[in-house]
Design a protein that fits this description.
alpha+beta; 2 domains; about 45% helix; about 20% strand; transcription regulation; Transcriptional repressor NrdR; RNR_NrdR-like; DNA-binding
Length: about 160
């Protein structure tokens, strides 16, 4: 693993621990050249995913991008880092399990919104406002009305 401080390609693993319910390994490393310590995270990647944007462009899937978006939506909300990571991991697993190597950006957004809706309504609305490009206050009102009607329907079933 290349040292982020000096660029040396050799480092020594000092400590390894499972992370995220065993789906990743966190490793503390020390550079053999400059002695600086840094952390790496290794995850199993079932296949290389390619995101197909709305304009047809293709880009490699970036787990960190969806993670940042979810963290921004849940900023200052009573949701733990572990819960946020579980949301991201769930979205990625669903994408990988689909069997497709190319996935529409709209599908990623929908999966993220579905997961956020289950965890935190405010985070869901924040994410939806960016994802669906809300331009007017009416857009917020419409999504809140939709959320309320779905909540009432589920309460009536119980």
């Amino acid at each position: 693993m290349r040292c982020p401080f000096c660029g040396n390609p050799d480092s020594q693993v000092k400590d390894s621990r499972p992370n995220e319910e065993g789906s990743a390994i966190r490793r503390r490393r020390a550079c053999l050249s400059c002695g600086q310590r840094f952390t790496t995270v290794e995850r199993v990647q079932l296949r290389e995913l390619v995101v197909v944007k709305q304009d047809g462009r293709r880009a490699p899937f970036d787990r960190d991008k969806i993670s940042r978006s979810i963290r921004i939506a849940l900023r200052k909300r009573p949701v733990s880092d572990e819960q946020m990571e579980q949301i991201v991991t769930g979205v990625v697993r669903q994408l990988e399990a689909s069997g497709d190597t190319e996935v529409a950006s709209a599908r990623i957004g929908e999966l993220a919104m579905d997961a956020l809706k289950e965890v935190d309504g405010v985070g869901y609305v924040r994410f939806a406002s960016v994802y669906r490009d809300f331009t007017e206050a009416r857009d917020f009102s419409e999504i809140l009305t939709l959320m309320e009607s779905k909540t009432q329907q589920s309460e009536q079933k119980d």
